[in-house]
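quick one before i forget lol
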Amino acid sequence: MSKVKKKVKVIKIDLDKCNGCRACELICSAFHATPKYSSNNPARSRIRLIFEPLKDVYLPVYAGEYAAAECMGRDKYLIDGKEYDECDFCRASCPSRELFKEPDSGLPLKCDMCEDDPPQKEPLCVQWCINDALTYEEREEEVEEEVKLEDVETGLESMVDKYGLQKVVDTVARMSKKG
């Protein structure tokens, strides 16, 4: 495989600057409402503020990739004398927790960096953060070129994961006889 340049977009989080105002959650949920800006439901937000009252810390976490299986990581981290679970820093939507799932359908949510219509020059959560706890960064990295799956391949891959290869093959064979 060849190397290609890919634009990487990141929201950097400065934990020391976050005061827990939740403006990031509010604007994100409003931007992703249907129709746009018609409501605000923090459960639909692609960024969530995790508050640890006993540790007196606010931790903004934005949604990452969907993880089909629960991870095995249950490590603890000690930061400035405070203990955190590994899940506190995890951005994945996974079966072991309700975080980053659409409240009505249960479908996983992922941060799209507000590239919807109209596209924003930087994510709205960054624009609305009054304490500059969130900052946006773009950089180019050289990565291995990915083979992009077609929509049909992605659907078939999903069905094979759910039903098994043989059942999908049998179904396609049966359908082709009807055609």
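fyi Residues 148-179 form one domain.
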